[in-house]
């Protein structure tokens, strides 16, 4: 069974195309117009082993909000499509990832319900060319459209390290949660 998705979203603010393969090799081709965001999505792809092609054109002359939000929405839609019926997946997973003086913890549950709780506390307004406070909104947008729970927290000093650690921890948690390890739906309700 192929766990792939090809999705597109066009609004007056953004034009985004995403190809995803959950059973990939961590290959990526990502262009969003926001360089630090590209770097975070590349880290996510590499460490989750999810192949990602993302081409996003947005109104970044205004700011990066619409582009990053819409990539989060569409990435969640792609994930929801690619994960399919969820038969056999591990479903819940967590990861702790250090990066120099920082350490991030992320737990996920591919539950069919949307919830996001992130404690990031970045000190600066920007991380590279990306607005720092949009990171929480990216994860909220992803969780909402992917219909999963994400809990994340990071401690540290350097915002670059903290942000990269949270994306890598998210990648590692997702890598484990999407693993197929049996032939049942992992829910006592019988639905996810």
Automatic annotation (TrEMBL):
Q: What is its EC number?
A: 4.2.1.19
Keywords of the record, alphabetical order, are:
Amino-acid biosynthesis, Cytoplasm, Histidine biosynthesis, Lyase
Question: What is the annotated localization of this protein?
Answer: Cytoplasm
Listed pathway(s): Amino-acid biosynthesis; L-histidine biosynthesis; L-histidine from 5-phospho-alpha-D-ribose 1-diphosphate: step 6/9
Q: Which GO terms describe its cellular component?
A: cytoplasm
Looking up PANTHER family in the UniProt record yields: IMIDAZOLEGLYCEROL-PHOSPHATE DEHYDRATASE, IMIDAZOLEGLYCEROL-PHOSPHATE DEHYDRATASE HIS7
Q: What is this protein called?
A: Imidazoleglycerol-phosphate dehydratase
